[in-house]
Amino acid sequence: MYQDDKLHEECGIFGIYAPGREVARRTFFALYALQHRGQEAAGIVTCDGHMAHVHKGMGLVAQVFNEDNLRYLQGHMAIGHNRYSTTGSSKLRNTQPYVIETIDGPLAIGHNGNLINAPQLRRELLERGVGLQTSTDSELILHLLAGAGGPDWMTRIRILMARIEGAYSLVILTRDAVYGVRDPWGLRPLVLGKLEGGHVLASESCAFSTIGATMLREIQPGEIVRIDGSGYEIIQGAPPQRFAFCTFEQIYFARPDSILNGKLVHQVRQKLGRQLAREAPADADIVIPVPDSGTPHAIGYAQKSGIPYSEGLIKSRYIGRTFIEPTDQLRKVGVAMKFNPLPDNLDGKRVVMVDDSIVRGNTSGPLVQLLRNAGAREVHVRVACPPIKFPCFMGVDMASQSELIAANKSLDEICEHIGADSLAFLSISGLMRALKANDGYCNACFTGDYPFNTPIPLLELQEKEKFPQVWGN
Fold this sequence. Notes:
It contains 18 helices and 25 strands. The protein is of the alpha+beta class and about 475 residues long.
């Protein structure tokens, strides 16, 4: 199948402490709501205060779990994980949550993000004689926490946070409580919710309404939250650094009905579209999105430009990751397997096609051609984020710099490459204006300005691009 021209989030995480409730079932439905954050594997660990029970597997949440294995997951607390793996690491052994037995009972962890000092930590653990079974930095976090020392888990988590550097939101399960941890830069999201009889943690608030929970607050950078029978407790586990929340959570990753940084994502994306219309107007008859992720951006563009909003492309909701390889002939049709045009809406029209991003540029060209084949007279492409020129080392799966089209071609060259009549990207200043923020976001994939004070050694960056299977969660 054609290579998906999208960025991919690494995973979704969830935690629950709710005595008397079916925690495994609620975790299942929460992971179902977070399925957009990872589609390759899923897992749940529960605990009854003595023993941990685990089930995980490859595939979508609904493929991994059924009534029989959910019935086995007994207890009053649980954590869950959806995984999207980087190249080469889509294996059952890398599926989370990870769980081990310690002197203080079971310890399990689910991780969203990426550690930039993972190679050094891996080497240290191996030199200490710690046996590692996976190629993930998430397992490193598990063993570092287990060996951290300290009188209680809250202290050990603080010790852990002083050792690890990078992007991480964590859910941690012990025999007594569930913990949530957010890195000092706030790169990855984590929210706390209230459920009748307990509390919950999740990557996004969209998981809460699915299980009858309500959002209480977003966990702030460097904070640790403990949920147990007494309620919840929040402490500052590490000093907060320059806030660097991933911009792509607002642009693309998060579900539109989630709340991030106090804002409904759908409304934020409409603002991005309106700002794009201000910066890059087009003389056209209709505005159409690249569904589904481009839809709110296109609505905003149409609102500001006054050009009627319409649908020009229908996306098959059931085309996703598959273990069935297409034939060469099917591979050639590529995008047509996923999108169908609406000729009656397009015939003779000058079209503005709005997308959330262009990564490699291998989807935009075929989409433009689909529109032309369906009768579009002109196709003007508008992109609701700045050009992506630099790779991410904080847990987002994207192409290496050599594959990023904006890093290697000028605007005119990209426009020619995709066959559009015109092309424009949202500016960085326009992006921040729409977000109503002067700072507080990581825009490294646009600017190359990474949020960490300590420079990432060039060799490690090169190794990540050459051997991505040893990085990421």
